[in-house]
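TASK: fixed-backbone design
INPUT:
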């Protein structure tokens, strides 16, 4: 059985500095605030599904230790809210998975990719269902 490994990692060229950070944000960077706003803004747009075809995934956006948005080629977004927080997922913003199928499903496990000292495997966590979402502010 052939096994495929796909890696989705967000590479950020954004420098983290304290300039421009509102002191009332309790240490949250503008990037963290944007992610929190994106989590809150999503509205369900139909029933959740168990799987997504790999060839339909254009990109992923890790929003927290528990929330990943899968951006599809057709413009739709499927939100996966993991049943439990996955340590360092939100910080590292990258993960891998191993599947022998042509789709990623709610029974699959992702592994956080940690960048410290090179790329290494971090925590492994189960996925949730894929919930179609829309963002009213973007329509």
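OUTPUT:
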């Amino acid at each position: 059985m052939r096994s495929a490994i796909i890696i989705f990692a967000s590479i950020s060229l954004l420098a983290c500095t304290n300039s421009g950070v509102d002191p009332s944000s309790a240490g949250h960077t503008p990037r963290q605030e944007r992610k929190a706003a994106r989590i809150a803004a999503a509205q369900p747009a139909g029933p959740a599904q168990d799987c997504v075809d790999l060839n339909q995934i254009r990109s992923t956006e890790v929003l927290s230790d528990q929330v990943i948005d899968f951006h599809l080629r057709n413009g739709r977004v499927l939100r996966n809210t993991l049943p439990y927080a996955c340590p360092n997922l939100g910080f590292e913003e990258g993960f891998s998975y191993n599947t022998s199928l042509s789709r990623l499903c709610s029974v699959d496990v992702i592994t956080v990719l940690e960048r410290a000292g090179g790329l290494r495997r971090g925590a492994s966590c189960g996925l949730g269902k894929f919930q179609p979402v829309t963002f009213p502010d973007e329509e």
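COMMENT: The first helix runs from residue 30 to 41.
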